[in-house]
Amino acid sequence: MSETGRADAFAALGPAVRAALSERGFSTPTEPQRRAIPPIAAGQHTLVIAPTGTGKTETAMLPIFDALVADDRDGFGALYITPLRALNRDMRDRLEWWGETLDLDVQVRHGDTTQYQRQKQAEDPPDVLVTTPETVQAMLTGSTLREGLEDVGYVVIDEVHELAASKRGAQLTVAMERLRELAGPIQRVGLSATVGDPGEVGKFLTGDRGCEIVSVDVTSKIDVEVVQPEITPADRDRSSELMTTPTVASHLRYITDLVETHDSTLIFVNTRQTAEALGSRFKEMGANIGVHHGSLSKSARIEVEDSFKAGELDALLCTSSMELGIDVGRIDHVVQYASPREVARLLQRVGRAGHRHDTVSSGTVVTGHPDDTLEALAIARRATDGQVEPAEIHHGSLDVVANQVVGLAMDAGEISARGAYEIVTNAYPFRDLEEETFREVVRELNSNYIIWLDEAADRIEKSGGTWQYYYRNLSMIPDEETYEVFDIASGAQVGTLDERFVVNFAEPGATFIQRGDMWRISEIDEDKERVEVSPIEDPAGEVPSWTGQEIPVPYPVAQEVGELRGVTADQLEAGAPSEAVAADLASRYPAGTDTIEDALGQIERHVESGAPLPTDDRILIESHGRTIVVNVAGGLKGNETIGRLLAALLGQQTGSSVGIDVDPYRIELEVPRGIRANDVREVLQTTDPEHVGPLLELSLNGSETLKFTLSQVAAKFGALKRWKGGDGVSLNRVMAALEDTPVYDEAVREVFHEILDIDRAQEIIAAIQSEAVELAAIGERTAIGTGGRQSGSELLTPENADASVIETVRERIQEDEVRLVCLHCLEYDRETTVKRVRDQPQCPHCESTQIAALSPYADDVVSALKAQDKDEEQERLTERAYRNASLVQGHGKQAVIALSARGVGPENAARIINRHRESESDFYRDILEREREYARTKAFW
């Protein structure tokens, strides 16, 4: 850029800042600096949207530093608010350098700041304070700090897109209004790498007071390729060594090749479980790749960040923990493992590669199955066209209102209810909040003794519970317990599960993926916060109940996948060879013909079957046995909504529960006998779209999802202590008591906001009924209908990898305690381990072989055997003991082993033995299957 261009960018800045620019080496401004500094320097509220690494922090702060240099304030001059819990060290260092150079005091305040430092900041406020949304909440209520806050003239909110879509952000918007009451009009500047709806986010930032939007084109500066690596013979050989599938072995090989051809690479995955699984396999391969995700300790994260930045690691495997601008040096390539699910996420992640001076950010999306590939293609195209998803702002969140009403009472000791309402509704997410709803929230707080409400005087005052409530609820992020997961086969700990998963999804028989393996839940102990699981040694055909914190694929992305299916199917049906169809698609989408042709294989097989093809404007219902699949490109939330509606209405018809499993392209129903595809068709064709919301609200009543959410919302209202999932009865009573309160209303709103998409479901059902969308049905499974099953098994062990599981079961049973009781004389009653039992047990007193192999705790059985006048229960126990002894008499130690397995009684033990397995492994495999069957059904016994 010419000196004229430089002068244009920095002309509004004073000599001290311009001198510092030269010292810092800012000879050429970046595009966001050139375009955004003038409006910020002019005092306008400004939203700056620009790629990571283009100097957004300096863009916002240079004109603010310039104003602070020329201004003599006693209190805080500016707040720099970041949502990162671990404040970005690089950003801190840069801001502190500017402060030292310009003789301005720049300090940090967050949860780890010492009490001494806090006291100093209160007594002698710095010019610039770098802090978090939660710390702002705490600062607003301190009497000395409030005096310092009266001087705040500028607030910069970093990563504003992240806050706009969360309750943390909704809470912060009210805090900004509270700060405005204290300090007067404040200039607000928002920074973000990606925003789908800048106008809305600008209103969110400013309270709809006008906002200059400076958007630097991100989409033309990314270069993304979608690749499904070819599986080579070497990959097949390596898959057993790495305990994974050939597909994943090809991914690992391809990614390591990419890492070797670049200086520094970030490898993004969508869940922590995937990060753990891939990380362990990279380690097995000897790859110089570190792992970074939110479950790691702070010290471990800092260590790996520093190692990567210093060039000691070739790549960093990470989750969304790396999206928000943590400084790890210059990145020259980004790998996204599997579809990123959203356009914003792809832009955010790939945007981390290639930084200053118009460098193009390069990235590769590595896919493993047709849905994944087509989805990644749709997202990559939409990214280059700038079609980013809008931020889902939490409008009218009532627990945030409750939280901030308490904050307003804390600020001044008392406030008029009308005044509090006006402050809250000045914040954009609450602009439409009705006054009566607001007053219901205040009454609820009053009834919970959190504040005092004098309705006659229209006054809200602090109460004895105000202080404790407020400081316990500075954050809108709910606290969740962690459950430890143990393998029942070995007794070893597998990992941990979040409370939300355990409450919403976990039940005996449910399956999930952790550390790259699939597990089936056997038992949940709520009191000990412990989940017992067994490994699934052959995952082929298994559908995980839960595969991690799934990022919801938006409706427009799913629709484009449906459109791609339709376009390519038309070409294939017209006789075009698949390679020609793939080449045509490759001319419009960023992938090679081999990758696209592989994804088209599923569509080609479907076309060859003659079944109608599900597309963006055709829904296909397919059925086989008790499984019905509705193929609809409705996105994850849309399909979740329709799936729950179908389950509720079909369940109501039959009086039986209907199981559902949902992905962005399919709704799979496990239905009771008597339900057919036509019943599903009828529900979709006759349900009034306007009734979708009320019907789902009714179906939510009593659900674990609503209970869990209600417990968290009620805690934010001060209405309920933390709820444990096992306390279902008492919580049901609480739910009934809260049903007509704002607590219940907010819990329903949150479930609808986070999990469901009522509007989209209504739109889809209306389109079916107007015949804008075709509804077809077929009495068999199709290639596309079953295609989603592959998506959850990408990191699972191969089918032949169960030998170690069987050996673990054998070792466990051999070490189990067993109680041997002679039924002939009842004199012999001895506990021992299974491995010490003789091949044919015999009583040492009477030499009878009529020996029962019982649990060590079977005192009730022994008492029943010895009882003279037996009651009905004792007769039953005695009969089972004799059946048990008969098996041992006939089959010796083999029967003792089978009877010692969990949940395997005499009948199941007899079935196992009667299979006459020649292989010991097959014998133990049958035992394991019976144990799993017991785990799945024990809750109904």
TrEMBL record:
Designated name of the protein: ATP-dependent DNA helicase
PROSITE patterns recorded: HELICASE_ATP_BIND_1, HELICASE_CTER
Helicase ATP-binding domain mapped to chain residues: 37-213
Phosphoprotein as UniProt keyword: no
Protein's UniProt keywords contain ATP-binding: yes
Record-annotated Helicase C-terminal domain positions: 254-399
Alphabetized GO MF terms: ATP binding; ATP hydrolysis activity; catalytic activity, acting on DNA; DNA binding; helicase activity
GO process terms (BP): DNA repair
Highest taxon in the source lineage: Archaea
This protein's UniProt keywords: ATP-binding, DNA damage, DNA repair, DNA-binding, Helicase, Hydrolase, Isomerase, Nucleotide-binding
Family affiliation: Belongs to the Lhr helicase family. Lhr-Core subfamily.
Pfam families reported for this sequence: DEAD, DEAD_assoc, Helicase_C, WHD_Lhr
